[in-house]
UniProtKB/TrEMBL annotation:
Organism: Pseudoalteromonas carrageenovora IAM 12662
Protein name per the record: Alanine or glycine:cation symporter, AGCS family
Any GO MF annotation of the entry: amino acid:sodium symporter activity
Subcellular location: Cell inner membrane; Cell membrane
GO cellular component, one term: plasma membrane
One protein family per Pfam: Na_Ala_symp
Similarity annotation: Belongs to the alanine or glycine:cation symporter (AGCS) (TC 2.A.25) family.
Record InterPro entries: Na/Ala_symport (IPR001463)
Amino acid sequence: MFDTVVKSVNGLLWGEGQILIYILLFAGIWFSVRLKAIQIVKFKHMFSLLKGSSKCKKDDISSFQALCTGLCARVGTGNLAGVAVAISLGGSGAIFWMWVIAILGMATGFAESVLGQVYKVRDSSGEFRGGPAYYIQQGLGSRAFAIVFAACLFLGYGFTFSAMQTNTITDALNYAFQVPTFYSGLVITVLAGSIILGGFKAIARFAERVVPLMGILFVAAAVIITIMNLPQVPAMLKDVFLSAFGLQEAGAGAMGAAIKNGIQRGLYSNEAGAGSVPHAAASASPIPNHPVTQGYIQMLGVFFDTIVLCSCTAVVILLADVDISGEMEGIRLTQSAMTAHLAQGGVYFVAAAITLFAFTSVVANYAYAESNLHLFKLDNKVGRTIYTLLYLSMMLWGASASLKEVWDLADIALGLMTVVNVIAIILLTPTILSVNRDYNTQREKGIEPEFKVKDVKVQGKCESGIWD
């Protein structure tokens, strides 16, 4: 019965109904047009903000830490296992559509991150909290709609995604070192528990140290493999573009399958529009003290996650002489491809990479859902304890669950979150445009942008007093 319901809803969202594909494409095009191709026109400015992104007020979270926390959640199984799933089911052409949804998604990610900052609040511990449930309740004045999103978030980031990340880690370790999945899952659960109990600030500090290092190592490995196989690169790129439009019969590459799997796995990887990253964006105390700053920083996160890291995984797989069956394959396909390039060391490298990538996601996922406890006045010792125990229990369950079972649950949770969030941010477009206009006006005058809500036309009301 449960499997039937999950299959039916996923069919509506991702299958024949393809609601999510149309919604994401619409949102990406909508914000790209309304923000005047901000992801391209302001590309250089986006990078320039990294220079001062580590600055923040004392005891607050910096823009760089918020970026790393966002990347913690983004950079995970979607980058290594998700790309493999996309290629195995959609052919090499799926990578092209993954790029398309990432470029469009950069504008969507900017929009939702700006809103996360505008409508953030301080909790009883003095930490910033925010996200879709907050901007839905304050900006749109609908607590019921906010509760719907929060429920979807808890289903996804609160429980399902942690199980899926653990599943991928334990499968990779089992394949590389024959470690029983239950025991490796138990160790991962204990380690994650020791970090998440420190709260959002501890998670941000952990992310700041781990994310840059693991990203650099993985990109370096992909660059080395590309150089080793340089003569095959033109043919690989040709195959990607031809397969994207159904012009090549090789592999599983019908155009429909390429689009569906590229967009689906692209969204799972970069999360633009899903409503997850605004939680990390809201946690920051950016300098300059303006919501748009964090919008640019998180937009950079979408670029780095999909255009850089997912492309690295795709290159590793597509340049390897491995058989792509057309059946769903996850992290083991990536390990097999890496082995083809680096012999047995490839299996170990991917096992180590996915362990780091997915583990950081587990930690950030906890923070996203936990930030919504404040919305329901459950951010007390009892509420946090119950949530933490449930979260860690789902991690342990995921260690031994089947690949399809875990991914199906992750897809349904992500899909429902995205539907609610995209509706909300489109309705809040006037606020996004107004705040962005305020930022640009101050920069044109040579002023370091500073946001004051009384100077900007904002929908609903900012109840926190932070921007007064």
